[in-house]
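Replying to the earlier thread about multi-chain prediction with a worked example.

Input:
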Amino acid sequence: MTAKPRPLSVLRLLLVFGFVFPVYWAIASSFAPEARLFDVPPVVPTDVTVDHYRALFEERQFWLPMRNSLVVAGSTTALAIVVGTLAAYALTRLRFRGRTLVLAGVLAVSMLPQVSLVPPLYLALRAGGLINSYTGLVLPYLSFALPLSIWLLVGYLRQLPAEVEDAALIDGASRLQALWHIVLPLAWPGVATAAILTFLYCWNEFLFALSFTLGPERYTAPVAIALFRGRYQVPWGEILAAAVVTTLPVVAVVVAFERRIVEGLTAGAMKG
Amino acid sequence: MSPAAPAGNAARVDVEDTRLAWGLLSPTVVVLALVVGFPLAWTLWESLHVHDLRMPWLGYPFAGLANYRDAVADPRFRAAIAHTAFFAAVSVSLELVGGLALALTMHHATRGRALLRVLVLLPWAIPTAVSGLLWRFLFDGQAGIVNAIFVGAHLLDRSHVWLVDPTMAWVPIITADVWKSTPFVALLLLAGLQSVDESLYDAARIDGAGPWRQFVEITLPLLMPAVVVAAAFRALDAFRVFDLIYVLTGGGPGTATESVSLYTFSALLQRLRFGYASALSVIAFAATFVLGLVYVRFAGKHLLRVDR
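Result:
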């Protein structure tokens, strides 16, 4: 360990402060009365109000986009994890021609700019009557969620020793039995991590949701907030309240699974 | 099978494995063909045609490379490329410097590491569209806190209307991106730092090297692969930027902050020029692909490793 001189600690504190302050400010402001939103030093808000939250749910029916986000992100994650686990098992445990090619393909897909899929997906969804539907979001979401979850799962399964499984195979278990009875019970932390990260990416998605939905009944939460309009001015109070509500589930997940998320993120990007 | 499995079994196992492998991969192949392969082929096809939903009487004539010629000559598209490159270069550089500082902080923190990780993960985990709005609030032209701080510290004479100034509008955009992505870069670099052998530092200390020399001669060189990967990874992301600019400036004022994704989007869903927008997105795809190759070139031997 190197010595820690004092000025550095101050710098560190400032650094961390810089990351936290905007979040604090948004939360504090979301509880401030409309007239005092832009008052400068309410470091601790003096008169707290929940008006913005009430307006958010009663007038803007914000529970609708929240529900949409939950349904779309949840279904996409479930599908991506089931399909992805099968693929990741094949890619890490079986020897076959074309394995590298499949991995390279999955990697290439995950680098695709989303916008290049928007024109054809829009035309296809329109032709299939799927614009402004849950299916019309889940399918496009799979284009990034599936490669992501395969990638994370491959990274995890690689670290998992194959010996236990090999023993079962020698004892006459089939590959599928080994996957179900041995690998999955051992790999569930990795599967959970992949699910958490996939869910977060789906929850945060914006471009597809903006392109393939038409109204508040199918908007996801980020799109709904971005399209909030006031009668005369930007409804900042409600926007900030909505930001807090949308971010709460994310914060809960991050606090609960902080270590896993960090491991998954770093493994996904470089160690494989 | 263990590595020492008898060679005689190999051929038989391979046939069985291959069949099972493609069976297990078939749902993935079907899904990716449906939502990626087929749409990409369609984009390519679209890009070779005139297809304007506002002018259906034009039909769907084959246009060869006309859309691409138009795109290359389109000053707005050229500007969008320049904006995107500028945004990516500036924000990724800042994120690398900030990320390194943050990673060192986290690496040397003795107490409260978990808390630090949570605090640092927050900006990363907040939906980009939401954090874009948050920064729009902070940078608000009249009474936002950023103006208040700058005026209070006498760095500005009076409140600045950031988002309507073609040059200054980049400040909130880049600030928001740096705020959001620095933690991610820091986590990648932290993983790199943790893999540096501590005994190297002990050896350097015995040789009388101070903290700065240790940093320059041990930490930085050993961290370089992680830095390159983080840079390429972030550059890929920055090149696709959409949400942040959409909510912060909408590409404005005018088209002063319009990125490639934003221009493609507006050609598509606002002006309904599908053929032309498809050509734009093929170009965006090609550019990302080149960046991706750089990334794989550096990280590839780990990423595509097939042994276990």
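Chain A has a mean pLDDT of 86.

Feel free to reuse this layout for your own posts.
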